[in-house]
Structures are given as structure tokens and as C-alpha cells.
Predict the structure.
Amino acid sequence: MRGIQKVAALLLAMGKANAGRLLKHFDQEEIRLITLNATQLGAVSSVELDEIADEFLRQFANGANLFGTVGEVEKMLDGVLPEDAVSEIMSDVLDNSNRSIWDRITTMSETVLTNYLTKEHPQTSALTLSKIRPAAAAKVLSQMPEPLRNQLMRRMLSIKPIVQEIMRDMEKTLHEDFMLNLSGSMEADSFARMADILNKMERDHMEDALENLNEEQPKSTELLKGLLFTFDDIINLNARTQMAIFDQIPTDSIVMALKGTSPQFRKAILSSLTSRTRRIVEFELNSGEPATQRDVLEAHRTITDLALEMAGRGEIELNPKQDESTYYS
């Protein structure tokens, strides 16, 4: 940490009363700098606090972990400075911290972002899409109904400079909706956990569960389907993505996973393997050695789990909508 970050961490760890007595000795510009750095600290462990404290004091009790946020810092300033001075400082801090809101939104799931923007006013959605990274905007637009997609693209082309106050209000709203509410909500966590569970179920059991859920909660079912990926979906991936996945799978697992598959499915997968691996897999499959359903399903899970992990790291895209010009040799 830099010096001013260490000061901010110590003040937050001291609590409002002690920090307040010290802050009275700083001028307003110094408080502004401390406040800005405090809101950007993130998590600071007790070990780190001890190391910082040792630089200022020869002894310091073990501190609790803390997390610097705008709200915590605003409470710390309350009563230390006049209300208008606090408002001015926090306004400046919020403006600075929200500059990266667009980058943070870009990392959100496109399914979640699509669902959010579909419910917003088209002009708000168009402005949001024009501010985030083009690759993320393209994914979101591809999931929207065609009429809405076309309307948003027209609006994006005609966007004019936005008044700073309006932009600041919008950034603050997005920060609250995504960073504080939506991204950390139990609902989002529940969908992610349920999708992970369904991904590990047998195909028949998964379909039965989704069919049953669809009768009561069709919207939730559609959202879940967007998070699912099964072994059968591998055939919908382009050749390059298939190669990236199977290059990391042991040959015996590939052989086991292809047991009982259709000739068309098997041909598509074999075409994504290296020549040497393909010959080995074909030889093993032609030997006709039987395998238990349990072993086959375990091989399926090994491959789909790897695919999901690679997608989570951004190494591949599990997008079923492939270009029709993709061919297998």
C-alpha cells in the first residue's frame, strides 16, 4: 500500500470516534484524498493491518478484517465536517469510483444484463450498451428480441452528449443495481447453484426437472436453460472450441464418453481430435469393449466440467448459436 492508503486503513480500523478526533487535524483536501483511497481499499486482512500499524506504532492489537466502502467512509465523516463539506467530498468520491462502473458491468453475465436492460427504458438501455465493451454489448444484443435489438441499435447511433449530472445519477443507479443488489443477491446465487446441480444430473433427470419447473415458473426455467451445458451440447460448438476442450481430455476418457453415441455425434467429435488421438479412439471404439453406464456418465461429466471451467475463465464460449458455415472434415 501507498502511504495514504495505509492512513485510510488505520482510520477505518480505529472506528468513528477515534478517527473523528484525528480527522479534525487534517485539511479538507487531505480528507478528500483519504476518503477517496478508503473507498477503494476493498478487503484488508488483520495481518495486513498489523503490518501497517507496526510502521506507525511499535505496538498495535490484532485488528478485525475490514472492507472499505463509500457508506462506511461517509459514516466516519458524519459529525466531523459540516454537512455541505461531507456532501461535496462524497460527491467527488462517488464520481471517481463510478468511472469504472462500465468495466465492472462488462464482466456481468450477459444473460443477467440482458434481462435487466430488457426491462429498462430503451434510451437507458441504449446508453448502457454504448458505454460497455463492444464484445459484451454484442452478446447482449444477440439475446434480445429482434424488434428491441433493432430499436436499441438505432438509438445507439443517435445518442448525443449527456449532461454530467444525469450521467452521474445513472452511474449511481447502475452501481446500486448491479454492484450492491443484483450481482450479490441470493436470487443470482440460487440460479448459479441450481444450474451447477442440473449440469451434473443425468440428461433424462435434468429434462424432467426443467419440465416440472416450467409449469410453475416458466421465466425462471428459461433463465436456467441459458446457464446449462450438457455433453450433448458439445456437438453444437464450433470445431475450434471442440479441439480446445478435447486437447485437455485423456484419450481413455474420450473413448468412454463416446460409448453408445450416435454415428453422427461420434463423427463430429472425432473430427475435432488430432490424427493420432483419433486413430487410438477409433481403434478402442471398434474393439467393442463394453462399459457401464456409470463410467460413461462420469466421462461425460469430466468433459462438461472442463468445458464449463474453460468458459468461466474466458478461454472458450459455450454459445449454441454457431455459424452455419462451420464444417467438419
